[in-house]
Amino acid sequence: MYKIDCRNELLVWGFGLLFMLSHLGVTAQNKVLIIGIDGTRPDALLVAKTPHLDNLWQNGAYSFNAQTDPLSWSGVCWTSMLTGVWKEKHKVYSNEYKNPNVKEYPHFFRRAKEQTPNLKTYSIANWKPVHTILQENDATGTIHRKTDKKVTDEVVKTLKNTDVDAMFVHLDDVDHAGHKYGYALNNDKYIGAIEKADEKVGKIVKALKRRKEYGKENWLVLVSTDHGGTGYGHGKDIPEHTTIFYIASGKDVVQGELLKQVNIVDVAVTALKHLGLDVKEEWKLDGEVSGL
Hints:
alpha/beta, Alkaline Phosphatase, subunit A
């Protein structure tokens, strides 16, 4: 009887150890994908037919009343998203990126690599200036493609063939449509551009789920924008320009509408948190964790 009891105890202990190690493995493989869809008004997103984005927010955490920087230019806002601080700290006040304060407030890739140097980080963008704040070794791969289709193709290829821990994707055609045809809910070409962006999001998410190791990975997908717009432009401190959307999708997300105020600076902080990193007070980040 004693031998049988010992054997049973060993079996229980062994299964418990395997269970614990498997869960530690999942935690060790937390990964994040951020998709930025330039110039997308949240009210226009809700008007457009966007089944892939709908699936993400309806099964995730979301806000259609999130806020970007009052100075609603792309350079300002993307920098706020990717550093986790407002312009008063990162010092980007236009699309020209004059003297960004990346030493004190760097891209979140750098923050992540400070603690986990071997992380594989990729930034794939249509609008090349978004890469300006990347310092040497921040990104494992920095890729610029001149169309959203080529950006999407590059993202799909990278997700299929490469070890990725954190990725930022920038799509720009919606903003192009806004500038050319007008940022309006009754503008078929602007709404159509949002619908085409949704198709690209669908291809990206499909590629993500087809990764060979996807079952062992714990992905957080964050989708947002830099600003809205009216007429043929943006940049003003008015709700149509500064109200944005925020979507968080993944196993660790608390589903439902986020009732607290969500800001563009939350994206970097949420990504860092999901990656299991220590968000230090000395970094003086302005964002908060949203949706986890």
